[in-house]
Amino acid sequence: MPRVVRCGLIQAHCEWSPEKFALKQIKQKMIAKHEKLIAAAAKNKVQILGLQELFYGPYFCAEQQTRWYDLTERVPGGPTVTLMQKLARKYRMAMVVPVYELEMAGVFYNTAAVIDADGKYLGKYRKHHIPHVHPGFWEKFYFTPGNTGYPVFETKFARVGVYICYDRHFPEGARCLGLNGAEIVFNPSATVAGLSEYLWELEQPAHAVANGYFVAAINRVGYEAPWKIGEFYGKSYVCNPRGKILVQASRNKDELVVADINLEEIDQVRATWQFYRDRRPDSYGEITRTQARAKAADAAN
Question: Structure pTM?
Answer without folding.
Answer: 0.95
